[in-house]
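Re-run with default settings, no changes from the original entry. Doing this only to confirm the output is reproducible before filing.
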Amino acid sequence: MENQERPGFKRVRLTGARFDGGRLPVDSLVELQKYQDIVRIAAEAEWKQEHPNEDVPSDLWNSVSLTIDRIDEGSADIFLAFEQHQTYVEYQLEAQDVADSVLVAAYSGTEIPDLPSLSEEKSYAFRSTVAEIGSTLKPGQTIEYYPDAPGSSPITISIETRDEAVGALLTPEDFLLAPSSELDTFALQKSDESLVGKITALDTDRMTYRFTLQGGQQLTGHYKSSPELLDDLRKVVNDAAEGPLTRVTGELQTKNDELFRFWQTTSVEQVQFDDTEWGHRLATFTALRPDWDGAGAEQISPVALDAAQTVLRAITEADIERPGVFPTPEGGILLEWGSSQRVVSVEFLEDGSFETFSLTAGEPRGEHSFGDNLAFAVEFVKAVRA
């Protein structure tokens, strides 16, 4: 069987002086990788459509893979073929049809087809990766992609045509969700987390909000799964200067290891720290994410923060010297006073309970106690520091 008759066989031709003689620069290989990625995303979606209550097989992604069958001289005239993995062959061919239809629509000025087999999340992954194709091109270079037979009419991707295609593929909301100047390869990780910042915009039609972190970074949050949170969001929405600190908890997604968005929101609550030196320090701890020490540290517990604030207020009123205030890897807060004569500390655990410690110079061992009544912690500090 001739190559061009093989199912899934595709021709991709790169033109421009850089590709003369059939040269294929290494950094241009990413263009082929992006095409393979969109086929893989669509293949997973096709499999999921037929197996809605099952997890996608762990080997499907790598099994749907392309290989360079040959490169003809002239320009870099590349012929791609699927590696033969019979288990998923029906899904890879269906997925390639989806990829082809979207590429053709984006570069021919026709409406981008609906992708009913893709979730909202996967649809964004798919469209953003399609939009990345051609990102390595320089002026005078093109990618000719042949969606049908190798001798058919190609679509042409260039710097000029790509600008218009990206506008067709990505909506204004997509650019809000991914505001970087370069669209990165889609790679989401999910975890249940809390972040503290300010709600600076609210879109009730789309059931989204803008969440501005203390460093100025902006994320988009979704509350479609918890519409009852609308009243809580309305109470705290304001501009970044005037709005109250707010703790948002939910399914946080990172993209390429960078904070991306809250895909689901489970709670929204206002956070208040006193306008004092230690209050500002406690506020900085709210920005610490899991593994903030690089050794698996827990995110600082809101309960521990509240407990530490209560005790710090009381010892400030008692005119006791302010301690050192530190986060702990277990998700708690440590208050510590140290001198050449004595070391005193109160450590608040993630559940709000605490451990006290006192060691006087010259003594072989210190004194420990445990409790959950914050009044006792305050009295302990007064007794040893007054």
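Residues 1-6, 175-186 have pLDDT under 50 and may be disordered. Residues 29-50 form the longest helix (22 residues).
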